[in-house]
Specification:
Blueprint (H helix, E strand, L loop, with lengths): L4 E6 L3 H10 L6 E6 L3 H10 L4 E3 L2 H5 L6 E4 L6 H10 L3 E5 L6 H14 L3 E4 L6 H12 L5 E9 L13 H4 L3 H14 L5 E7 L17 E8 L4 E7 L11 E6 L2 E6 L5 E4 L5 E3 L9 H14 L7 H18 L7
Length: about 325
């Protein structure tokens, strides 16, 4: 039986809790430790999630020879520096999405990865979730024939608190769509056909504000074309009420059928060749975290690139750059 991966989390915030809860289902494959600039917080996370060590600084974890890999789980502003430090110390890296605010940051990370000959996986868990895997399989099988339209909808009223770091563009790298909408842009761009042209449309910001103090632009509509001549749209908002705080339907339309799916992955209905098929892709790992870590582990073991590599993330970032160039032409996000 292979030795478990010794994994250190750099950062003890909300997303580290999410990762840690999902890793609980991978017993025997990983041992965890926690690093924070607040030693008390690192200790608390270590106790809560049955870690083996707590570190009072990120550098202490990075320099510990007993650590094989790190998860960079801090605001995007600090991702590149910690990624390069970890690679220089010979660690493999899983860096949360959006990995880096600029294309230049991705290029610098590529150089450091190649020099260190280590694995870097971008934490785009939606790439691995059962919904995405099912949609890719259905399209590859020709379940709806030649795709004509793709329509993605993700809407919910989920405001951030006034003191949340995501309200700081320098910390987050951008607004709500940049920080979270990247999941959905990746989903649209990862189903088989690839997006070739894209344009963003941002609704006028609310003049009424909200009681939470969330100051970010929180809505965006994207129109795009695929390399197979299909066209699509993505409606994203974090200020519009929705059933069960996010329940929505999306669809892929083909010349021989339609795939309708709950946007978060609860179910998929394929109507095309043969009888209609109602599928429930998988609730055990509905967000894809376990599959993401398993790919990370295998990539390290086999000495190969992970599915969600820097190169794949760069494709998404270039699309994101084009979205913002169309919305804010003077902006330079390269």
């Amino acid at each position: 039986m292979p030795q478990p991966l010794r994994l250190a989390f750099l950062g003890c915030g909300y997303i580290t809790k999410v990762h840690s809860r999902h890793l609980a289902g991978l017993q025997g494959q990983v041992v965890r430790s926690y690093a924070s600039r607040d030693a008390g917080k690192a200790d608390a996370y270590c106790r809560q999630f049955q870690g083996v060590a707590a570190y009072p600084s990120y550098s202490a974890a990075v320099q510990d020879p007993k650590v094989d890999a790190v998860v960079v789980a801090v605001p995007p502003r600090y991702h590149l520096d910690l990624t390069r430090q970890a690679l220089a110390a010979g660690k493999h890296v899983l860096v949360e999405k959006p990995a880096f605010p600029t294309l230049q940051g991705y290029r610098a990370a590529q150089e450091s990865r190649d020099a260190a000959q280590r694995v870097v996986l971008v934490g785009e868990n939606d790439h691995y979730k059962p919904l995405a895997v099912t949609l890719r399989r259905l399209l590859a099988e020709g379940a709806i024939g030649e795709m004509v339209f793709a329509h993605f909808t993700t809407m919910a009223r989920k405001f951030k608190a006034a003191d949340d770091w995501r309200n700081d563009v320098e910390m987050a790298g951008g607004d709500a769509f940049f920080e979270e909408g990247i999941h959905w842009l990746h989903l649209a761009n990862s189903l088989g056909p690839s997006i070739t042209t894209v344009h963003g449309y941002r609704p006028q910001a609310s003049t009424n504000g909200n009681t939470s103090g969330d100051r970010r632009p929180k809505s965006m509509m994207i129109a795009f074309e695929y390399n197979n001549a299909a066209v699509g749209s993505l409606y994203y908002s974090r200020e519009i009420p929705s059933l069960l705080r996010g329940l929505r339907l999306s669809s892929l339309y083909g010349r021989e059928g339609i795939i309708t799916f709950e946007s978060n992955g609860a179910f998929v209905l394929a109507r095309g060749k043969g009888l209609p098929r109602l599928m429930f892709p998988g609730f055990g790992d509905i967000r894809g975290y376990k599959a993401m870590y398993q790919d990370f582990f295998r990539a390290i073991r086999d000495g190969r690139a992970p599915e969600m590599s820097l190169e794949r993330a760069i494709d998404d970032h270039i699309l994101m750059d084009r979205v913002y160039a169309s919305v804010d032409p003077p902006a330079d996000r390269s």
